[in-house]
Amino acid sequence: MIELDEDPQYKVIKAMPPEELATLIDHMDSDDAVDVLNQLVVNDREAVISHLAAKEKSLHIIELLRYDEDSAGGLMAKEIIKANLNWTVVQTIDEIRRQAENVEKIFSIYVVDNKEQLLGRVALKKLILASSDTKVADLYEDSLISVPTYMAGEEVAEIMRKYDLEAVPVVNVKNKLVGRITVDDILDLIREQAEEDIQAMTGISDDVEESDSVYRLSRARLPWLLIGMVGGLLGAGFIGFFEEGLNAVTALAFFIPLITATGGNVGIQSSTLVVQSLANRSVFADSLTKRLLKVLLVAVLNGLVLSLFVMATVVFLYDKEVKFGLVVSIALFSVVLLASFMGTLTPIVLDKLGINPAMASGPFITTANDLLGLGVYFMVATLLLNL
User: Fold this and answer.
1) pTM score above 0.70
2) Out of the domains of life, which is the source (predicted)?
3) Secondary structure (3-state) at 148
4) How many helices (H) and strands (E) does the chain have?
5) Are 114 and 215 within one domain?
6) Which domain does 223 fall in, by range?
């Protein structure tokens, strides 16, 4: 059941009586059980927990439900294998056999003291090769990365990615070992975040599924479509303001799509790279000044290539005057520069304000750069062609 998509899973959960759902949950890991129970209202949740056969399982679930579901505490599973540092190898192996019955995958054996505080870990190979009377205290490694229960899931994912961890232990404020997070749990979180970012970048404001109602799908898509429409109306106003100039030089209208499309594409490229860097925090590896200088150099190079190409095309292919070609090429070069900076700075500013930087891509950047491109194009035309 836990492999089902969200919507069909919810329908199955809602249709099952509490005692049947409790029977299924008895055979799940605690973190999967909590994911299922979080879809129920409080009363239904309590009814299911009251029917659980294993008292220890119910206590684990109640503990996990207290945490925010996107925190380390909400992501962790209680099923872990731990050894006391005073145990001998024989005692430890016996305990591993007992504890492993409830653990689906064994990544590490965590070592704790008499107060259940995390000290380190011991490799299974070391236990097997050591003599039976050797104590765990002589075998374990204290160089261990752990995360607190309150850490955000995104930070946990970044730590596991950075250090290539298959599992990470979770500790409370007293450094007591309370659970573990496996790479499977993090992959689910990363997938959900990627889906949310993709939806945000395409102008979908809510987390929606294709199976959602028509009303919910429409409500999620409509806000940014309205913003795009308002931007289009403002663009029409720009064009109307320069109507006399367009009547005097009608060829100006031919290149409006070129200017707006190029600005939009450059802005989306820049913002996408920054959003990607913000996601893995590599954007902070360089100073903002260094990053902007790099953006400037790339924009100048791309702008020169594009403007020279369009200059040659306008003059030779369309048989227009050099002055007219200069209007289009200068406007295009300016738009490439401005769109690059807007696409770079907007996600960084939004991230500083605590807003999802993915919202800076897609419709927002496209609409803003359309208006910017039209303004620059007509200003250059007015100056050079004396409109």
Assistant:
1) no
2) Bacteria
3) strand
4) 17, 6
5) no
6) 208-385
How far is residue 74 from each of residues 253, 331, 351, measured CA to CA in Å? 57, 52, 24
Distance CA 31, CA 366 (A): 41
Q: Which of 311, 280, 302 is nearest to 384 (CA)?
A: 311
Domain count along the chain: 3
Of the candidates 166, 198, 230, which is a domain's last residue? 198
CA distance 253 to 241: 13
Residues 244 and 378 in one domain: yes
Domain-embedded: residue 71 = no
Residue 1 lies in a domain: no
Q: Which residue shows structure tokens 């070069």?
A: 333
At 378, which CATH number? 1.10.357.20
Rounded to the nearest 5°, which phi and psi values hold at 238?
-60, -50
In the sheet where 118-122 sits, what is the strand order?
A: 82-84, 109-112, 118-122
**86 & 46 share domain:** no
Assigned domain for 203 exists = no
Question: What's the pLDDT at 386?
Answer: 76
Rounded CA gap, 184 and 219, in Å?
Answer: 32
Structure letter (DSSP) for residue 222: H
Per-residue pLDDT tens over the stretch 168-223: 999 999 999 999 998 888 887 777 777 666 666 665 555 556 666 677 777 767 77
Reported in sequence order, the residue ranges of the chain that DSSP labels E, i.e. its strands, are 82-84, 109-112, 118-122, 147-148, 167-171, 177-182
Q: 236 pLDDT exceeds 70?
A: yes
Q: Report the relative pairing of strands 109-112 and 118-122 from DSSP bridges.
A: antiparallel
Q: CB–CB of 124/109 below 8 Å?
A: yes
Residues present in the chain in total: 387
Distances (CA, A) of 382 to 234, 255, 264: 19, 15, 23
Same structural domain for residues 228 and 365? yes
- Say if strands 118-122 and 147-148 run parallel, antiparallel, or are unpaired: unpaired
C-alpha 103/C-alpha 121 separation (Å) is: 17
| Same structural domain, 292 and 367 | yes
Name the residue with tokens 């039976």.
132
Tokens of residue 27, six digits: 């055979």
Residue 115's Cβ-count burial label (10 Å; 0-12, 13-18, 19+) is exposed
The alpha-carbon radius of gyration of the chain (Å, integer) is 30
